[in-house]
Amino acid sequence: MLVRLMYASRATAAFSEADLAQILKTSREHNPAEGITGLLCYSDGMFVQVLEGGREAVNARYKHIVLDKRHRDVVLLGYEEIVERGFPGWNMGQVNLHRLNPALVLKYSETGRLDPYAMSGGAMAALFREMCASGAIAVS
Amino acid sequence: MLVRLMYASRATAAFSEADLAQILKTSREHNPAEGITGLLCYSDGMFVQVLEGGREAVNARYKHIVLDKRHRDVVLLGYEEIVERGFPGWNMGQVNLHRLNPALVLKYSETGRLDPYAMSGGAMAALFREMCASGAIAVS
Amino acid sequence: MLVRLMYASRATAAFSEADLAQILKTSREHNPAEGITGLLCYSDGMFVQVLEGGREAVNARYKHIVLDKRHRDVVLLGYEEIVERGFPGWNMGQVNLHRLNPALVLKYSETGRLDPYAMSGGAMAALFREMCASGAIAVS
Amino acid sequence: MLVRLMYASRATAAFSEADLAQILKTSREHNPAEGITGLLCYSDGMFVQVLEGGREAVNARYKHIVLDKRHRDVVLLGYEEIVERGFPGWNMGQVNLHRLNPALVLKYSETGRLDPYAMSGGAMAALFREMCASGAIAVS
Amino acid sequence: MLVRLMYASRATAAFSEADLAQILKTSREHNPAEGITGLLCYSDGMFVQVLEGGREAVNARYKHIVLDKRHRDVVLLGYEEIVERGFPGWNMGQVNLHRLNPALVLKYSETGRLDPYAMSGGAMAALFREMCASGAIAVS
Amino acid sequence: MLVRLMYASRATAAFSEADLAQILKTSREHNPAEGITGLLCYSDGMFVQVLEGGREAVNARYKHIVLDKRHRDVVLLGYEEIVERGFPGWNMGQVNLHRLNPALVLKYSETGRLDPYAMSGGAMAALFREMCASGAIAVS
Amino acid sequence: MLVRLMYASRATAAFSEADLAQILKTSREHNPAEGITGLLCYSDGMFVQVLEGGREAVNARYKHIVLDKRHRDVVLLGYEEIVERGFPGWNMGQVNLHRLNPALVLKYSETGRLDPYAMSGGAMAALFREMCASGAIAVS
Amino acid sequence: MLVRLMYASRATAAFSEADLAQILKTSREHNPAEGITGLLCYSDGMFVQVLEGGREAVNARYKHIVLDKRHRDVVLLGYEEIVERGFPGWNMGQVNLHRLNPALVLKYSETGRLDPYAMSGGAMAALFREMCASGAIAVS
Amino acid sequence: MLVRLMYASRATAAFSEADLAQILKTSREHNPAEGITGLLCYSDGMFVQVLEGGREAVNARYKHIVLDKRHRDVVLLGYEEIVERGFPGWNMGQVNLHRLNPALVLKYSETGRLDPYAMSGGAMAALFREMCASGAIAVS
Amino acid sequence: MLVRLMYASRATAAFSEADLAQILKTSREHNPAEGITGLLCYSDGMFVQVLEGGREAVNARYKHIVLDKRHRDVVLLGYEEIVERGFPGWNMGQVNLHRLNPALVLKYSETGRLDPYAMSGGAMAALFREMCASGAIAVS
Ligand SMILES: Cc1cc2nc3c(=O)[nH]c(=O)nc-3n(C[C@H](O)[C@H](O)[C@H](O)COP(=O)(O)O)c2cc1C
Ligand SMILES: Cc1cc2nc3c(=O)[nH]c(=O)nc-3n(C[C@H](O)[C@H](O)[C@H](O)COP(=O)(O)O)c2cc1C
Ligand SMILES: Cc1cc2nc3c(=O)[nH]c(=O)nc-3n(C[C@H](O)[C@H](O)[C@H](O)COP(=O)(O)O)c2cc1C
Ligand SMILES: Cc1cc2nc3c(=O)[nH]c(=O)nc-3n(C[C@H](O)[C@H](O)[C@H](O)COP(=O)(O)O)c2cc1C
Ligand SMILES: Cc1cc2nc3c(=O)[nH]c(=O)nc-3n(C[C@H](O)[C@H](O)[C@H](O)COP(=O)(O)O)c2cc1C
Ligand SMILES: Cc1cc2nc3c(=O)[nH]c(=O)nc-3n(C[C@H](O)[C@H](O)[C@H](O)COP(=O)(O)O)c2cc1C
Ligand SMILES: Cc1cc2nc3c(=O)[nH]c(=O)nc-3n(C[C@H](O)[C@H](O)[C@H](O)COP(=O)(O)O)c2cc1C
Ligand SMILES: Cc1cc2nc3c(=O)[nH]c(=O)nc-3n(C[C@H](O)[C@H](O)[C@H](O)COP(=O)(O)O)c2cc1C
Ligand SMILES: Cc1cc2nc3c(=O)[nH]c(=O)nc-3n(C[C@H](O)[C@H](O)[C@H](O)COP(=O)(O)O)c2cc1C
Ligand SMILES: Cc1cc2nc3c(=O)[nH]c(=O)nc-3n(C[C@H](O)[C@H](O)[C@H](O)COP(=O)(O)O)c2cc1C
């Protein structure tokens, strides 16, 4: 059974570029073997990640992520059983957002800064789709 | 939570181009900081304005506007919670309508003159969308 | 409140081209001032007219038309409150049908001759839309 | 083809109970022979009437009614082709409203007084249905 | 045109039972004459009010209310054009909530305390309907 | 923002009645203060739990639960934003299932034994609803 | 494949009660063997009949009926493939209508007399259903 | 009232090209005067014909056709009241199918040979539409 | 994954009551252990059976049944993935139909005799549901 | 009656290219004569096949296939009555998949390897459609 899981979290104060690189490396090692695909978005000290894959695999990996000390306030934005993946071609962890288009963020939020904690899961997903479609996401 | 608010009002008799310029200036100062976007339409001594943004911000600003002595008979045409803005790219106050296309107005009203007080909110919104789409709105 | 009214009628035996011209002239004088737009179709001694505009204006004008001695058997084919006009750009009375495309009429009726009395309002409206779209209506 | 026609009108200043009785008498003579059924509501100097029957019959009778000098400002509220009558058992003209329930009227209008001219056809029809259902209509 | 308007606000610190009584008295004097009906709910220093009536009347009264110094943070929860009132029989101002059923509030909110500022307009309306239906609203 | 979260897990081999009692006690202490309601179902060494409440509160508590050493293989079965709770009156932790009705379980699964890991979230939710409705859940 | 066929026809001038009895007798002999069920309605010199059964059987029988010299102007009112019969328990030919309820007929037609030729198939079917439901059909 | 009637039949053993020509000639003489349009398809000793026109006209002509000794086993495939014709431009009888595209027939039937008796009316109509669209029908 | 499978078959000429008893006995032994439930209907030398259970289990058992020499012409009438069983409480094999209600069968078929080969899967399922609901199925 | 049947199976250990060639040869001989079309997909020791055709023909052939010793674990993925074939132009057996695009498979499954046993029939059908559309299927 395929599922899609989306969550938001806040990086800890000490979080650095090196930490991000490390997470991406880890993800590239684990995810393919576990059949997990998705998208990791980092911006303004906040993460939003989409994980897609088998139900057991995604939940097992999500348990690790929830416990990871490099971020906190992990909050699920959405979780659903799916028939087909939305991000089959993306290898998780390859995405590093340095600068989000504020106009695009503004369209879905109260201010031009991304704050997934103030958004419904549906709005976040819509913003994600539009970011992907518009190429606003810069691949590192 | 994002909301969209649309209202109509009548300019006071003494209302001048200078007043309009002043309103636009004020709006350009306030709105971006409050995450408010939208559209201000002025024609034949009547205003129709759309305000989009966070629920608190829009209501707080609307309170100021309702009290503004430069217009009267402020009447809500619509108010709804939205997932995405319809006018994310417009900076409020930039729009100044010198001449509305009567044929277009006629399509949604009983006569060729814009009278939002005689229209339902839905008709006003449809007219707005068509004005935007057709470029009938002249940006000052 | 905008409404659309459609009716059919039969010209009296004595009806002439001059009568038609007179009706068109009258319509051009009255309708714009009353915010009434629409379409007048004359063919084979029968009229079908669409009137769009404010509810009071359309009904007041319709009362005059019903009483007009130049036609009889006036029968409503449709009447509805609308949000937007279907014929905002047409000035009533400009249309004079000398020859309807029988193939087009046949599509919606039992014979190739237009007989609105044998048609539902919906079929008549569909025929009208197709006539407009296909340019089958000859503007005098 | 069956149709349903609903209109509103204003009684002339001189309109009296005797006039109403006369209209009812006339209706009782004409309508059954023409297959016309419906409802006549009189209140506060205003009429709202529903006529149901064959398309030709209803339009012919409506022409007479529109011309009747005992009322003015006749405005169509609705007109539609129907498969079955809504008032098959009512003999037109039997209904005489001396007193409408204001609470019921208030539910569909801005004030407690019936003003069909300020109502959409849909609201009027809904009020009618509720009046019938609740027995608020007093049969003379 | 009928509209329904719902808003929330916070009573000022000094707000007293006497103030509430005064508001109710004022409402009873104004609203019937203006064709305004609805519901005023007061609980834990917060108001939620529903106003129904003609578009102009409701907006004019709302302007007064927004300016009223006895409360602040007035935020619209909903506004829509309606065909029929939901509260035609309630005289505004008769309702005084001393104690809301926490179980009922909990059903629609994150905690057992009513906080309309943390709720969508739809949830607030649903809570309102259930309070009315269950008799949870105590009429003073 | 209210959410509903449902998961399944397997009790560790050593899990005892005393452990269950301890979990119930803890839940009774924590959940009300956090505005969390729901249902805990224990059967055949497996848990299925529904948690309802504010998004932050539910996620924070879920993090604790995921880490709890008394069970493993925690797998999300469903997660959604809701307008109203489905279990507002249940105090979490009061439910202890000694014996599930196999006929009922069979209706939604391949065998008569409850195996949430082999079920979709939708089927699990349907089974839950029917268990509640039929009183099949024994409250300890 | 099951089908339902409905038609109307006019009895010839000479048609008598004896003819009707003969038709009923014939139908009782043929129809059961051919798996044909339905309803025969005779009123005011007109027939409306519903035939249900296998596609071949119904068409073969209909050919005989079309040719029958005892009636003329046979016109199909409806024909459709069905999954289940609407009249499985009626033996064709048992129904003899001496007197139709005019109020009921009026509901679906322009006058109180049944004229299937002036009705759509849908209206005729609706009338049929209501006649059956209300017991208005007298079984001979 | 416009109707569309579709039937299938089997040509008698002796049926020849001359017979077909004769039918086409007869149709060209009768149908236009009766307002009947449609399509006659002949293939492998079987006919499928669509007749469109007024209800009385189509039924009267169908009676003649059912009785025609040149074919047998006439079976209705469909009959419905329509608002607009599907074949307004075709003069009945002009179509003579010498060779049907077996691939196209196979798409809607169990074998590559057209057997309307083994098809539902809906499948036959779909095949017809696709034959027309693809030009598979050869006009004689 | 749960599935529902329905098929029809013809008993071989030699099929006896003893054979049926044997099948029932076998089914009672196998099915519960495999989580298979359903219904076996035997009438006029034909079987219709519904099998519900896990996808693998149902298919494995169906393979045995297809090969069973006691019947032939096994034809699938339906197969679908389901969320909940329709026959959770029936132990397969308990049902023995000596006499089907012909009126009920007639409702869904061309004659009063059950012939699943001449029926669509949907009609067969509808007949099944009605037989169950009406108690027409006699349990041996 | 047309049906579409889809199943999965596992080739036996000894299965060779020669076996596949033999199956294709057999299919090319049998299927056209039986009006059966479809698609046979072989990959990683597993088959997925779609069979379309008459209900009897498809079931008779499926019985042979289920018994074929060259594969095992035959499991139906879908079966439905259809109006038109999805693969009318494919001759069964011509397709031989040496290499499936893992990215495409990953989109519908938990890992990059095709495992129809872990997929719902709907997901398998969606994958099939996309493989056909993208040309991912290599025709031998
Ligand atoms: C925001 C964030 C996203 C992460 N995403 C992934 C991921 O997609 N895959 C992964 O394996 N680890 C991810 N990690 C790292 C995990 O939290 C964890 O460190 C890793 O799974 C540990 O794996 P291991 O201890 O089994 O090697 C992420 C960490 C953070 C903070
Ligand atoms: C028709 C109309 C539209 C206005 N729109 C805005 C607006 O979008 N933003 C804004 O800040 N002020 C707007 N104003 C001005 C406000 O009424 C008010 O003057 C202003 O918000 C006062 O701000 P301040 O006193 O806090 O500086 C508008 C005034 C009018 C008459
Ligand atoms: C078929 C027909 C269509 C007409 N359409 C219009 C019309 O659209 N507008 C109009 O003013 N008069 C129309 N007339 C003329 C009116 O019947 C009537 O003569 C006219 O409104 C009289 O106006 P007056 O007496 O107020 O000048 C029409 C007449 C006929 C016979
Ligand atoms: C409000 C109103 C309603 C009327 N309703 C009817 C009616 O339903 N039937 C009718 O025959 N006349 C009705 N009349 C009277 C007609 O206007 C007209 O006087 C009558 O049809 C004249 O008929 P006659 O001159 O052909 O006898 C109504 C009049 C008024 C003012
Ligand atoms: C929460 C709240 C609700 C109120 N509701 C109403 C109301 O429904 N009707 C009303 O007339 N005044 C209401 N008032 C009072 C108005 O704010 C205002 O005092 C009153 O309309 C003033 O009327 P006046 O100055 O025209 O007499 C309300 C005030 C508050 C604080
Ligand atoms: C199956 C299961 C369900 C639980 N449900 C709850 C719960 O609803 N609320 C709760 O506070 N703890 C629950 N717990 C216990 C938590 O895992 C954890 O022990 C507790 O939240 C720790 O709280 P504390 O360390 O903050 O006191 C549950 C544990 C298990 C194994
Ligand atoms: C209005 C009408 C309805 C009839 N209905 C049936 C019928 O349902 N079944 C039937 O067998 N004959 C019916 N008949 C009689 C047939 O027209 C025809 O006489 C009969 O089928 C001849 O059968 P036979 O010549 O094969 O014996 C009906 C005739 C009429 C005029
Ligand atoms: C398959 C078939 C189709 C026919 N289609 C028509 C047709 O569309 N129009 C027509 O007038 N006659 C058609 N006919 C001929 C009629 O059956 C009949 O011969 C003709 O209507 C007789 O007309 P008449 O005797 O009134 O001159 C068709 C005959 C057959 C066998
Ligand atoms: C119409 C029919 C229905 C049957 N239904 C079942 C069934 O539901 N369960 C079952 O185990 N066998 C059923 N059987 C018997 C099987 O065909 C087969 O004999 C049996 O599964 C053999 O099991 P075994 O050889 O593994 O013991 C049925 C046979 C027939 C002819
Ligand atoms: C995966 C698979 C697919 C097959 N597909 C077909 C097929 O489409 N048509 C066919 O005739 N045989 C097919 N066969 C072969 C049949 O199982 C069987 O061998 C064949 O129908 C025997 O036919 P015969 O013994 O009647 O000659 C297939 C076999 C396998 C293993």
From TrEMBL, chains A, B, C, D, E, F, G, H, I, J:
It comes from the Bacteria. This is BLUF domain-containing protein. The lineage of its organism: Bacteria, Pseudomonadati, Pseudomonadota, Betaproteobacteria, Burkholderiales.
